[in-house]
Amino acid sequence: AVAKKDSYAVTLLPGDGIGPEITAATKQVVQALATRCNFRIEWKEALIGGAAIDAKNDPFPQESLEQCLASDSVLLACIGGYKWDKNPRELRPETGLLKMRKEMGLFANLRPAKVLPQLIDASTLKREIVEGVDVMVVRELTGDVYFGTPKGIDIVNGQRVGYNNMIYSESEIDRIARVAGDVASKRGGKLCSVDKANVLDVSQLWRDVVTDVITKDFPDVQLSHMYVDNAAMQLIRWPKQFDTIVCGNIFGDILSDEASMLVGSLGMLPSASIGESGPGVFEPCHGSAPDIAGQDKANPLAMILSAAMMLQYDLDRPEEAALLEKAVEAALDAGVRTPDLKQENDGCKVVGCAEMGEIVAKLVAEID
Ligand code: ATP
Ligand code: MG
């Protein structure tokens, strides 16, 4: 085996709102992990989103892109806020995010929804339904109806007609199927491909290509197919039937938000966006939470768990990733909660963002 690297360049994008607070907590935790496990991280900050608009009049400046591409990995907090909502489209924070994904070739978005035993009651669903749920949604990120052309609003026979195109090429389906096959084989070995092949031609191609890739190159993965309407229902009815789900951009957008509700709090959900090669971007699923920014109330765990995904997918450190997840669970076991996780009369202690970071950092250095 090749010796592991012992030093990594990681670009930090603190972004907007609660971004700087959760970034500081995450950095502290990963730093404690690196010290314990004898590797080094060279942290470099860069601008994205509203922060970049304010400083450089550009939501994702060229220098940020170059720095991301030159890193081993990128850790992003969150972007956006009321302040920039009325800007023209090219000066909105979200435009910077889309540009980053496109320029870095990040075509696969991985969103795990894992219900932790300590937080079962945070879900609005019944205990027996969510207990033990561990689903990974692999969403295609750079194709589908969001990018298909032609698109627009035309006048036809005196009225406006709007249209977008759901388009997938064979090669686009092939590469996301390979990511999903790989992810599924390293998890529970079950892959459910979601489409609407009973109605849509593009879905029939999706189904054919996914079947080809998985049966030929991932023979140990057990593949099934499901129509998206049924999948939406099954996710709530009995989520434990799923291990890994793969789907196109728009179905994945909807299903991954639905799956996130199984877990309870937005503050617990990490994500990874990866491409064929080069650095990936790891970020919490939540937004910049402007309503609680600057008040030390944010939950940093989604970003800390995103750092665990970074260790697993980009830095080739699966054991360290597992240790980080274990430290997060140990903090919850100890009864510490940020305000978003607090249940009534649960006897837990409410802490701020910074204190949660300190506690997890201490645990990551000490637990066995
Ligand atoms: P975006 O459009 O960027 O996804 P959003 O409009 O979906 O953003 P969020 O910023 O994710 O909204 O916030 C939704 C709600 O969840 C807010 O009330 C926010 O305070 C809360 N929230 C989001 N993230 C966290 C977190 N890490 N810790 C605590 N509360 C959070
Ligand atoms: Mg949102």
UniProtKB/TrEMBL annotation:
<dbReference type="InterPro" id="IPR019818">
    <property type="entry name" value="IsoCit/isopropylmalate_DH_CS"/>
</dbReference>
<dbReference type="GO" id="GO:0005829">
    <property type="term" value="C:cytosol"/>
</dbReference>
<dbReference type="InterPro" id="IPR024084">
    <property type="entry name" value="IsoPropMal-DH-like_dom"/>
</dbReference>
<comment type="pathway">
    <text>Amino-acid biosynthesis; L-leucine biosynthesis; L-leucine from 3-methyl-2-oxobutanoate: step 3/4.</text>
</comment>
<dbReference type="GO" id="GO:0051287">
    <property type="term" value="F:NAD binding"/>
</dbReference>
<keyword id="KW-0732">Signal</keyword>
<protein>
    <recommendedName>
        <fullName>3-isopropylmalate dehydrogenase</fullName>
        <ecNumber>1.1.1.85</ecNumber>
    </recommendedName>
</protein>
<comment type="function">
    <text>Catalyzes the oxidation of 3-carboxy-2-hydroxy-4-methylpentanoate (3-isopropylmalate) to 3-carboxy-4-methyl-2-oxopentanoate. The product decarboxylates to 4-methyl-2 oxopentanoate.</text>
</comment>
<keyword id="KW-0479">Metal-binding</keyword>
<keyword id="KW-0520">NAD</keyword>
<keyword id="KW-0100">Branched-chain amino acid biosynthesis</keyword>
<keyword id="KW-0028">Amino-acid biosynthesis</keyword>
<keyword id="KW-0432">Leucine biosynthesis</keyword>
<feature type="domain" description="Isopropylmalate dehydrogenase-like">
    <location>
        <begin position="9"/>
        <end position="360"/>
    </location>
</feature>
<dbReference type="GO" id="GO:0009098">
    <property type="term" value="P:L-leucine biosynthetic process"/>
</dbReference>
<keyword id="KW-0460">Magnesium</keyword>
<dbReference type="Pfam" id="PF00180">
    <property type="entry name" value="Iso_dh"/>
</dbReference>
<keyword id="KW-0560">Oxidoreductase</keyword>
<dbReference type="GO" id="GO:0000287">
    <property type="term" value="F:magnesium ion binding"/>
</dbReference>
<comment type="subunit">
    <text>Homodimer.</text>
</comment>
<comment type="similarity">
    <text>Belongs to the isocitrate and isopropylmalate dehydrogenases family. LeuB type 1 subfamily.</text>
</comment>
<dbReference type="InterPro" id="IPR004429">
    <property type="entry name" value="Isopropylmalate_DH"/>
</dbReference>
<dbReference type="GO" id="GO:0003862">
    <property type="term" value="F:3-isopropylmalate dehydrogenase activity"/>
</dbReference>
<keyword id="KW-0963">Cytoplasm</keyword>
